Amino acid sequence: MPSETADLTEGVNMQTLIKFGSFTPISPKSYGVQRSDLDSEDSGRSETGVMFRNRIREGVYKIQVTWRVNRSQLSAIANAISPDSFSATFFDPTTASTKTCTMYAGDRSATMVLNADTAAETLWDLSVNFIEY
Fold first, then answer.
1. Considering only CA atoms, which of 73, 79, 96, 98 is closest in space to residue 88?
2. Vertex 30, ends 26 and 31: CA angle to 5°?
3. At a CB cut-off of 8 Å and minimum separation 6, what does 117 contact?
4. pLDDT tens, 17-31?
5. Cβ(32)–Cβ(63) below 8 Å
6. Radius of gyration (Cα) for the chain, nearest Å?
7. How do 18-20 and 86-92 pair as beta strands?
8. Are 69 and 122 a contacting pair, CB within 8 Å?
9. CA nearest 93: which of 74, 56, 65, 128?
10. What's the CA gap between 15 and 125, in Å, rounded?
11. CA angle 72-114-82, nearest 5°?
12. Three-state SS string across the chain, please?
């Protein structure tokens, strides 16, 4: 009898969670997918607290990724995500499927986690938010 975990991950290459165009970065340290709705500025609550909502778009993706990288890997990822927009193909755990959409890189941060003898050996945690256009 197969386990539930095996059923949920069947056919999914967990090593390739996200790629940008033809560039596939190393496997991330952490990976999260969020889907949000966008409401019009007319949405809000009445004086009695009743919600009125005018959803103008649903399921907009935001992906939070952190990689532990050396200097050359950091440079390669930074170059791949530097355009104003790019195609991203990613695993969506909210639907258990692979999606492709146009995204841009939002907030980015790099934190040194290992100060090695050479710059090439120093390790960084690179965190980036990717937001769907």
1. 98
2. 90
3. none
4. 999 999 999 999 999
5. yes
6. 19
7. antiparallel
8. no
9. 65
10. 18
11. 35
12. CCCHHHHHHCCCCCCCCEEECCECCCCCCEEEEEEEEEECCCCEECCCCCEECCEEEEEEEEEEEEEEECHHHHHHHHHHCCCCCEEEEEEECCCCEEEEEEEEEEEEEEEEEECCCCHHHCEEEEEEEEEEC
Cβ-based neighbour number of residue 69 at 10 Å: 23
Identity at 56, one-letter amino acid code: I
**Going by C-beta distance under 8 Å and a sequence separation of 6 or more, which residues neighbour residue 25?**
18, 19, 67, 73, 76, 77, 80
The token pair that represents 101 in the structure block: 């959409």
Q: What is the pLDDT of residues 79-132, one digit of tens each?
A: 999 999 999 999 999 999 999 999 999 999 999 999 988 888 999 999 999 999
Q: Which two tokens stand for residue 92?
A: 């969506």
Amino acid found at 112: M
